[in-house]
Specification:
Elements (H helix, E strand, L loop, with lengths): L1 E8 L5 E8 L2 E2 L11 E8 L10 E6 L5 E5 L5 E7 L2 E8 L6 E7 L4 E3 L2 E2 L11 E2 L14 E5 L1 H6 L17 E3 L18 E3 L7 E5 L2 E2 L1 E2 L4 E2 L8 E8 L2 E2 L2
Parallel strand pairs: 3-21, 4-10, 4-11, 9-12
Antiparallel strand pairs: 1-2, 1-20, 2-16, 4-7, 5-6, 5-8, 8-9, 13-20, 14-15, 16-17, 18-19
Amino acid sequence: MSKTKLRQSAATGALGFLSVVFAIAMMAGATFAQSATGQINGKVTDPNGAVVAAANVTVKSVDTGRETTAISDNDGTYTITALQPGLYDVTVQGGNFKASNQRVQVTIGSKVSVDTQLALTEVTGETVSVIASEGVEVNTQTAEVSNIVTGTQIRELPTLTRNPYDLIGLANNVASDDPGPAVPGVGVSGRGAGFNINGLRAASTNVLLDGVDNNNVYYAALGQNIPLDAVGEFRGVSRIRLWV
C-alpha cells in the first residue's frame, strides 16, 4: 500500500487533514484503515527495569493546552490515540517515583514511542527531554516506508501550480502521470492525484480528506481540490503486502 497524507490548516485555526492512499494487494483483497491523526504509546518501568502498572500518563498539547490521559496496564504499556499533529508534553507519574516529563513531536499518521524509566530520587531542577521532532522518522512498528513534508517545507518550497497534490512528487517512488485528454463537458483529465505510485496506475489512487474519501469515483479523479495555503503537513506512505 502506498499512501500520501497532508495536514490541512483552516483560516480559523482549526486543523484538518488531507490523505492520498494508494494500495497494491497481491493474491488477496484487503481493506486498510487510515487515520489522519497520530498516536503516542510507550512502556513505563522502574529503575530496575520492572514494569510499573497503573501509572498515570498525561499528554498535553503545547499549542492548544488540550490534555489527554491514560493509565498503564499490567504490562506497563499505554496508548493514546487521535492526537492532532504538533508538540506534546508527556508526563508520567507512578507510585512514589519521581514524575517524568518528555516533549515529543507527533506528525500525521505517526506512532511515536515514548518509553519511560521512572527515577527513585528527586532531581534538582526540571529537565524536559525532546525525543522526537521534525525530520527523518525511523518506523519500527509497521512494514511501510514513508516521507514527511513539514509545514515549513510547504511554505518555502517553490510551487508554480499552487497545488498541494504536486508535493506527492517529492517521494522517491513516484512518476508523473500523463493526464491525457479532458473529458468532454467535465474538464477532468488527470486521474487520481496525477502520479503513478510504485508502478500503480494513477487511476487506482484513493484520496482522503480529513480521513474521508475525496474521490470522483466515476472519473477516477479528485473530488475536491485543496488550496496549498490550507495544508499544514504532508506524508507519503508506501506499503506492499503479499499473501501466499
